[in-house]
Amino acid sequence: MAGEIQYDPQGLQALNFALAAIVFSVALHLRLAELRAVLAAPRVVAAGLAAQWLLLPALTLALILLLRPEPAFAAGMMLIAACPGGSVSNYFVLVARGNALLSVGLTSFSTLACVLSTPLIFAAGMALLPAAADSTPLAVPLSAMLSLLVWTVLLPLLAGVAVQALLPALADRLRAPSRWLAGLLLAAIIGIGFFNNAGLVGDWRLAPMLLMVIVHNTLALAGGYGLARLTRCPEPEARAITLETGIQNAGLGLILIFNFYPETGAMMTLVATWGVWHLVAGAVLARWWRGRPLSAPETRPA
């Protein structure tokens, strides 16, 4: 996994702060009453979370066994599968005429749980990768990763929900500017990181990596839809689960790489490529679905 990422400690601290600010700003949009409404359909919620936490990691391991990519790419694929859903999926679900409330709920639940789920899924996947990728296992610093996710995800999420619940007027004023400022800060810091490491990107076979990302993402989308329909979720819910499974929080994956795997530039490149491609795939699928009528009304799930 040659190719060391150059990122100074101050840059890492700023990157982590930007992630915490984004999580806080997203949490300002979460209303407890809406999340409770999502939980009124536990079977659908269970299907959505199972698609992310069980199906996607299993499909990822199967794909690695089939393609046998180089170890850094395999690790990047596994890290993507361990990340929670990305918040842009909520917009895509809305465009696709899916169940947007379910999408927001799944993103919120998976983000809240990622403090535990992301390190554990990634560690389990990496423990199985030697057989899949002919490599030695990549060490997963569980306690350090858990600590980072508590400070950058869990506490900002709880703080944002608390402000929304206790000080709704303040939440209304902070909502738009905080999300824009945090997003711009994160984009700027990641952009600076890529600029400083531009020489690394050319060191790897980009065409095979892009093909792997496309196949991986397509498998995630198809698997999410298949599981949703297999569990008898109505079409709007199936569309939400599909996009939640195929749109992963690549930004969080990059932050974990910058903090814990600075020696794996190829891993960074694959995760960043996923972060671009899933936006293209999600937008195309959402627009295609928008032009297709929903099936006849189905019994709402319980």
Walkthrough of the structure:
The protein is mostly helical. The protein has a single domain (9-290), classed as Na+/H+ antiporter like fold. Helices cover 79% and strands 0% of the residues. The chain is built from 13 helices and no strands. The chain has helices spanning 9-27, 32-38, 42-67, 71-82, 88-95, 100-133, 142-166, 168-196, 198-201, 206-230, 235-246, 250-260, 265-290. The N and C termini lie far apart (47 Å). Mean pLDDT is 81; it is low at 131-135.
Key phrases:
302 residues; 13 helices
> In angstroms, what is the radius of gyration?
19 Å
How helix-rich are the residues, as a percent range? over 70%
Examine the secondary-structure arrangement and name the CATH architecture.
Up-down Bundle
Q: Look at the structure and give the CATH class.
A: Mainly Alpha
Query: What's the total number of strands?
Result: 0
Unreliable residue stretches: 131-135
What is the number of helices? Answer: 13
Q: Please name the CATH topology.
A: Na+/H+ antiporter like fold
